[in-house]
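hiii so my PI (J.) wants the whole complex modelled not just the main chain, which honestly fair. so below is everything: two entries, each one labled with what it is. i double checked the lines twice but i was tired so who knows lol
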Amino acid sequence: MAAVPAQQMQTEAHITVQDLTMAYGDFVIQRDLNFVVRRGDIFIIMGGSGCGKSTLLRHLIGLKAPAKGEVFYDDVNFWRAEPDEQERMKRKFGVLFQSGALWSSLTLAENVALPLGEYMDLSPTRIREVVSLKLALVGLAGFEEFYPSEISGGMQKRAGLARAMALDPDILFFDEPSAGLDPISSRRLDDLILELRDSLGATVVVVTHELASIFAIGNNSVFLDPESKTMIATGDPKDLVESENPTVRTFLTRGES
Amino acid sequence: MKEALNPAEVAEAAVESVTTENNTPGQRYQLSFERPTDNALLVRLAGRWRLEEKLPPVTEVQAQLESGAAVTRVQLDTTRLAAWDTGLLTFLAGLYTLCQKRGIAFDNAGLPDGVRKLIDLAFAVPPQKDTGRRGELPPVLARIGDATLKLLRGAPEMIGFIGKVTLSLGRLVRGRAQYRRSDLMLIIQDVGPQALPIVSLISFLVGLIVAYMGAVQLAQFGAQIYIADLVGIGVVREMGALMTGIIIAGRTGAAFAAQLGTMQVNEEIDAFKALGISPMDFLVLPRMLALIIMMPLLVLYADIVGVLAGMFVANTTFDISVFEYYQQTARALDLRHFAVGISKGTVYGILIAIAGCLRGMQCGRSAQAVGQATTSAVVTSIVFIVIAASLMTIMFQKLGI
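here's the output for the full assembly
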């Protein structure tokens, strides 16, 4: 982490998705997905509502097994790996769920401390220091003893991010980070994501359909189409605006061009 | 170095280079200090600074700050830093806080870019002060007082809730309550028919126990035939209703509290209120009605199963024929006994609905609160049931029913 210069990181494949088909029973959500997320990318999964963005994320973080196809992290095939290996890989993921998904019966400090206590051999003092630092990083210093229900939605999101970062993940996954946030808060969260990527050198995967965020932070993306049930574009969103494909172009320009 | 330094001090600064090393395999970090000038401290960080390395506490730097001439500036050197993660960040954050507290300048120029940005980020927003948390536990007397006041506050809330339920029933009678017939039917199905297996099992076994225990005693006098009276009156007047009440409290009362509690957590109840739909009418009323309708039927069913269990014991163990037992039961029981049992059961049903719905509606907004609401619903219903059972038994005795 952070030891590799940013330029070098951009070329190395971090997540490789091969011929992925996602389905609930017989109902196919998306088929034949092929894309590569490079180390250090901020990778956007985009597409209209109901196209399977969040489902794709669930496949990437190991919550749902693919109907067909593979997901590689570096060179390891996640879904073919032994359960122990999978657990080890999952520890390198940090996930921010759509509504924060903070454990409601724990304080913010306990929420962040739980993964640390489970997976690292640290003294209580050290855990407290780490927790305070993580909360400070997301601008929540001093809120250690609050319960999730006592803070605002934006703060819950940021606390969720602090928890996602608890174990110094290699990859951060965000499910609709700006959903339910005002434009300013959502902008601040975007800045925070950029800042964290730059300083931690982590790879970031974001599910979103917020155009402002897509252009502000994304440098790579995949576009899922609900009509054809497959991906119709991949690449830097700023280049996709000029895409040949009318669906992608309409989406990225809100149909205004 | 400044020219004004006297030679002795220069010599001291040059020698004063303390190194803390941790060289056990896999745990290699280096922390060393230097005094480039008299009032500056250079902290040199090298090797692997990761959480799992058992990193040194900031107090090591503090010790350095306190020894020798007063330090006004802390500089950092990380040129030989091999790897870092949160471990380094917590150390630096501690150092930064220490410097701020002592009014020492913290020079972050020697840090890698990423680390510098993260430290800036961590201290960009000043910590929230006066959050009113972390207070010590109040003294024992204060806590007893608080608990008592809380208990006392519970009573008006419950009475208020009963009042609201009554108003809602009034609206129902006038045909102005907003609820869905289909919800009522689903709840009735869930409360009644779905509970039959567990009610059958428990009433049969309780009937069996009563019959057997009684019969052993009665057999000493050759009066086994009175098992029918004992079981009939015992089960129909008391046990049937009580057992059903306790089963339904654990089964349905808990379910009501959990359903309403979860709706409270998801703001579904607020959504009803915002739409101008009374959650009392829409959620509590059908549950109340379902229990008022189903409890008498369940109690009647439990009574019959209990009597059959007595008949089974009498027939298999004490050689009393089915017909004899039936005749004896018919002589001992009349409708009055059934009315007593069933009316008790109905009261229990109302109490369970009140306890379950009240606890559900009072539920807080967390997963833990739902658990507490459910537990509290069952405990409250059982306490109510037992109190009501005693009161009604005494009342019916006094009235001679």
